[in-house]
Amino acid sequence: MKKGISAVLATTVLVCAACTSQISAEENTMSLSNKDKAVALLNSIETGDKEAISYVNPDQYIQHNLAVGDGLAGFGAVLQALPEGSAKVDVKRAFQDGDYVFTHTDYNFFGPKVGFDVFRFENGLIVEHWDNLAEKVGPNPSSRTQLDGPTKVSDLDKTEENKVLVADFVDTILVKGDFEQLGRFIDDGDANYLQHNTNIADGLSGLGKALEEMAKQGIKMVYTQNHIVLGEGNFVLSISEGSFAGEHVSFYDLFRIENSKIVEHWDTIEPIPAKDAWKNNNGKFGF
């Protein structure tokens, strides 16, 4: 009973904070970028900063994390359920593409995790959120982690060109499986393709070995549909749907592009629960 009352109180505080801070949010619209606001909201999970919630539109917030209830009430309930002092948030990368901001974050959120978050803004306020989380594990066969590597954005004039390249790669290689075309996207040689997937080594050779090993074990990775491609300069995020080992999943793949070739890759793969387990009806995608 006490826990239920606490959850209601936490939700009330969040909603009231959002309403009473509306003026503050409007004042900050000009001084803070949407990217800054998204990062501030994520950091508030750890710090409890109440001002950050003012960057969310309390009347329009749509949640696509299927384990979280819709709106600010769902967000508040999750925060209340976190063990006190347990949350840690370290945003490693943040990017902006039009009304979208996407981030790559090191979390302790009900345990160590790596996550991508996507926020959609309207009139300077967050109105929609998607994410993809994976358990945090040790280095891969090339001693790379799920989060290390470059963070600096460059080649802003090539954003659209790089998004087209990744969209073509996802469709040609990941969806259609035309691996004979790999050379159009990735140069041979381990140093030309740095891999952060937890089970795959650098280079096309590492990818080939991993796919061969999965085939031996009867494990299939199938991309059926790409839902959106977002990018800023040399970093491009692809969000796709498919299956892994027979389980319905969401694929978030972050690529770094250099000289019109894919040179680095980070990802998370998250199972999509059966619909009767969803805590909101917005779906995992809906872009």
From TrEMBL:
Keywords: Signal. Pfam families: SnoaL_2 (PF12680). Residues 41-129 form the SnoaL-like domain. The keyword Transcription does not apply. Residues 1-25 form the signal peptide. This is SnoaL-like domain-containing protein. It comes from Photobacterium lipolyticum.
